[in-house]
Amino acid sequence: MSQQIARLEAEEGFPVLDRGPRGVSLTPAGRVLADVAERIEAELVEARQEIANLGEGISGTVRIGSFQSAIRAVVAPLLAPLAEEHPGLVLDVREHEPAEAVRMLRAGDLDAVLLERDVDVDAPAPRGQHDVPLLDEPWRLLVPHSLPTPERLDDLRDLPWIGALRGTASDRALRRLGRTLGTDLAMRHAYFDFDTALALVAAGQGVAMLPALAIERSTVPEGADVVAMTGLGSRRIVVRHRATRHEPGPAVRAVVDAMLDVTRDFDLA
């Protein structure tokens, strides 16, 4: 690698690396060459995929890591039509918490993972990976009949809340709402699965803020109302895959396209 870099610097007549006591970094010329190389690499990947699609068909195994509500709403509905369109394609669906799924994608144990995030605190994928947005869905309130039905954001200030596990999109959305209201929301309990939140609301333990998809694809418990309100923001679901010289391959691309087809038909207005 050192010889290749030295040869590149000799050919271009510019240093591409700044070498210092703490390591190396790209020079301005090095950054230009790196950006051009990434564009060339992306074009080569696209060319390989188009050539592969000219063959007898897409085949192989794609390992998908996802959380429960995304499996139910996005992954499960595509299994049958994808098998019919690409008989040689096998999907291996595994339920994992997002943090574990991200580690497995990085290690090569998964080919694609579905992730959730509060859209107001969105973050780009790390280098070598790519996020494809699938769905932006509004946050909804689930309010037990034992509490007054809120009509505006200020009415949420003093309500008791069902808390979410730290680091989840629901947790970040609740903390963002607290900052918007200028207060720390009174939260108790901690859920990861939305069915748990539904059960706690049904038990009169407080108000929960859930994504529209989780409510519409579940049975709303008796004694609770769903409230839509401006200013709650939305949750984004993305599918993340590796983005390297050889990835995503035709099989992963076919799965991502199928996910986009499924979510395109959702009506969460």
Automatic annotation (TrEMBL):
Keywords from the UniProt entry: DNA-binding, Transcription, Transcription regulation
InterPro entries, alphabetized: LysR_HTH_N, LysR_subst-bd, WH-like_DNA-bd_sf, WH_DNA-bd_sf
Domain HTH lysR-type: 1-27
Organism domain of life: Bacteria
Record bears the keyword Cell membrane: no
Coiled-coil boundaries: none
Family membership noted in the UniProt record: Belongs to the LysR transcriptional regulatory family.
Name of the protein: LysR family transcriptional regulator
